[in-house]
Amino acid sequence: MVVDENLDCPEYNKDNFQMAEEFSFWVEGVFQTIVGILGIFGNIVAGFILSRREMRNSFNLLLVTLACFDSTYLFGSILESFRKQFALGSDVHIILFPHLLYPFTQIAITASIFMTVAIALERFIAVHYPINYSQAMHEANALTKRIFKYVFSVIFLSFLFTFTRFFEANVSYIDHDHNNLTEKIIALEPTEMRSNPIYTSYLNWSRLIVLGIIPFVLLVFLNASIYKDIQARRQRRMIHKKDQFKVQQPRQALNSGKLSTNGDNGPKTNGNQTSNCTNAKNGAKKEESDLHQDAVELKPLTDQGEIAKAVQEPKPKPPPPSTISVNESRCKKEDNMAVIFMGFILVFLVCHLPRLLLNIHELATIRNAMKCMKADLNPFPLWSTFAISISHVLLAINSSTNIFIYCFLSSKFREECVKLYQSLCRKVCITQWQQRENLVETPKTCVIQTQRAEM
Questions:
Q1: Contact (Cβ atoms closer than 8 angstroms) between residue 66 and residue 86
Q2: How many helices (H) and strands (E) does the chain have?
Q3: Residue 444 region by backbone torsions, left for phi larger than 0, else alpha for psi between -120 and 50, else beta
Q4: Residue 203 sits in which domain range?
């Protein structure tokens, strides 16, 4: 084969290639599998807690949907680790891979990215337009409509973007000679569409723009806007509290001045504490007797029911919470959920950054890599092999750590976790007690039956 001297193909020996395979085995195989199993378990627990009645709102339900997409991707990555790194791929696995496992894994990671952007948009609307958001949520079936709108849009766009993945690979049967016998071996091979340079260029550019640049720009913009709105709202609260404190100071001074001009009823500076407490008690008794006399004197002039009600309920009921306080508490809850999701966005950007950089590097070197592949040379440098394994592990970590971020930042989520743990412990204790009682009663019944049989 004639090799073009102008080709700049990376060179590395068998030892380097073996080192890359061992690194991929431990990182993309062992570690990624452990992270994926723990992540699926954590997402199931988080979904169960967030879907409870005490935690049910639009933000938490969207997080449950995100956990479903992440768990689907983790399951596909675990199966892929079994097939590639552990060589445990069965014939059924290979047959299902090109038209079921691989496409749905790609749909799941795409839906996870789109759902993250959708939740960020939902948090931005709740924080930046709180009045419109609260009015919309008070409508009938508002929660169901909102969840359906986001979930349907994400699933539709994810399927529309990744439907070509169903046609990228096929199953082929290769003849293999073993002990003078010819056997059919199932293998995977790329289709003509996947090998087409035009489709390869489209796939790389679409992944860079749709799954890289656009989500990163939107998440950074929405995250910065949410942070600015929260800071501005906190400053307004502090200013409002300072204004209230300035207004309350003159009122307290006036009240203290009125109390000091009440004559004998005011506090006396001379005399011991016992006389002051006694005078206070006598004054209180006198005031109660005066109030009782006033009530008796007003009895013939007013309605009996009103007097009885006044006597039974001398203290007025506290006024209901104002609309301002209710809106303020709702805004604080929305701000807390926005802060929690800002942690989600930060982890997302860190974990997806290597994938974006690798995609940019692949686009910059794809033509030279394809020429090297035709010349049976190494298409990509050795460091990219290590970076791909690290990128895959970071994607699994991002899909597995949402529950830990929520548990670390949300006190309500921690309370629900404690309640769930206590209820499970209570059920286990009751089950063990019932089993213990049955074990105690069973020998007694056996003894009674044997005594009757001997008689």
A1: no
A2: 16, 2
A3: alpha
A4: 14-238+328-416
